[in-house]
């Protein structure tokens, strides 16, 4: 199973391309890897390193098509119309966060290119939840990324500047963003004959940005109520890892409490039955989370800059609210203000591009790993979906 979050910048075309094709590219490489393992009588399944390499190969292949093969197609076509269509995903950019779950081994792989983030929530022996980052933000300000870039481009003091690549782009890994990957000659040719931007004055030895992801592997424990939150940096600018996991924990408790108060009507369904075995109906006064020191080593997070911008004191759980039937919507609501409906409404009302000063785009997925029986069916939570009741395409209703 795959889940993906794609965060575009400088346009939407790259993220749209990833949404349409990245899973198929990775699946193709994984299929070849598993097929190759079957040919070896000593193997039943490919090695962990081979699976990681296949995922990375899928990412890099797609980016090569977007960024470099597009140039060859444009030069061959000699058409500005073709250039306008083909070069768009190369000139804009996108981060990508892709998860691959093997239900046989219960291993979850998270491939991260850019600064979107995945965090695991797991219920501990204390009854509270722990938050574990499954990815590390990849920016020019990340120590490991800064060191990598300086090693790859010795003698270039401006390879990262103010936490940005060549002083411009913040993510150090991304799809597209050809101005950080093309040589000067290619950039000048594309700009003069077709479409493009002027190269950075610091450009010397491209590429400075890569689409190759960092892949982590985690053993999922459904019996401990494991869930994963995947989200763009817009969420993590507003909430810490612990706050996000604690909010999902509160949401789960609320759902379990509702199913209990409904007289057990929902207890027979696989969607709620497994919740009741974990939670009592008593609601905690604060987030049910085991707090860790913010900024500790390998926690994968930066401090939420929007909390500082808005003057929101850290650690004040009373600002949060539980009222949405959808866990992802619940996180977005609390990121944008929670109980402060005035703040929530204001942040949603601000028009682009002015809104970018106060909030970034938010895309959130919450994945629950239950142990209920699988019937092979995909069921729509109508109450939590954006479409109107009964599946009629009569319009869209706001969920906040």
Automatic annotation (TrEMBL):
Q: Which Pfam families match?
A: PP2C (PF00481)
Tell me which residues make up the PPM-type phosphatase domain: 1-369
Give the record's GO CC terms.
Answer: mitochondrion
Check the record and name the PROSITE patterns matching this protein. Answer: PPM_2
Q: Name one GO molecular function term.
A: [pyruvate dehydrogenase (acetyl-transferring)]-phosphatase activity
Q: Which InterPro entries match?
A: PP2C (IPR015655), PPM-type-like_dom_sf (IPR036457), PPM-type_phosphatase-like_dom (IPR001932)
PANTHER family for this protein? GM14286P (PTHR13832:SF792), PROTEIN PHOSPHATASE 2C (PTHR13832)
Q: What is this protein called in UniProt?
A: PPM-type phosphatase domain-containing protein
Q: What is the lineage of its organism?
A: Eukaryota, Fungi, Dikarya, Ascomycota, Pezizomycotina
């Amino acid at each position: 199973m795959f889940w993906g979050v794609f965060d575009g910048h400088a346009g939407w075309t790259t993220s749209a391309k990833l949404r349409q094709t990245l899973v198929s590219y990775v699946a193709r490489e994984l299929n070849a890897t598993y097929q190759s393992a079957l040919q070896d009588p000593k193997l039943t399944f490919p090695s962990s390193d081979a699976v990681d390499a296949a995922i990375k190969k899928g990412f890099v292949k797609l980016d090569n098509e977007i960024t470099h093969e597009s140039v060859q197609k444009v030069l061959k076509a000699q058409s500005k119309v073709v250039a306008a269509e083909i070069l768009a995903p190369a000139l804009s950019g996108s981060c990508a966060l892709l998860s691959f779950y093997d239900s046989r081994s219960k291993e979850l792989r998270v491939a991260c290119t850019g600064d979107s983030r995945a965090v695991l929530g797991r219920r501990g022996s204390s009854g509270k939840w722990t938050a574990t980052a499954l990815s590390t933000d990849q920016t020019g300000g990340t120590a490991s990324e800064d060191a990598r870039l300086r090693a790859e481009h010795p003698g270039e003091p401006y390879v990262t500047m103010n936490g940005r690549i060549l002083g411009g782009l913040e993510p150090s890994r991304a799809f597209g963003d050809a101005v950080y990957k093309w040589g000067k000659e290619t950039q000048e040719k594309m700009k003069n004959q077709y479409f493009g931007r002027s190269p950075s004055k610091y450009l010397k030895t491209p590429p400075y940005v890569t689409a190759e992801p960092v892949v982590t592997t985690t053993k999922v424990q459904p019996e401990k109520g494991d869930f994963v939150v995947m989200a763009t940096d817009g969420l993590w600018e507003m909430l810490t890892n612990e706050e996000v996991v604690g909010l999902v924990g509160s949401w789960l408790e609320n759902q379990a409490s509702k199913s209990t108060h409904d007289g057990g009507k929902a207890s027979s369904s696989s969607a709620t039955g497994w919740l009741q075995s974990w939670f009592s109906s008593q609601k905690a006064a604060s987030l049910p989370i085991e707090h860790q020191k913010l900024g500790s080593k390998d926690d994968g997070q930066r401090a939420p800059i929007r909390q500082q911008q808005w003057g929101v004191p850290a650690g004040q759980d009373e600002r949060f609210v539980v009222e949405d039937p959808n866990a992802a919507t619940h996180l977005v609501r609390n990121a944008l203000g929670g109980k402060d409906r005035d703040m929530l409404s204001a942040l949603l009302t601000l028009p682009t591009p002015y809104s970018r000063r106060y909030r970034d785009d938010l895309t959130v997925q919450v994945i629950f790993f239950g142990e209920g029986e699988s019937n092979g069916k995909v069921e729509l939570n109508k109450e939590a979906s954006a479409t109107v009741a009964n599946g009629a395409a009569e319009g869209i209703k706001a969920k906040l």
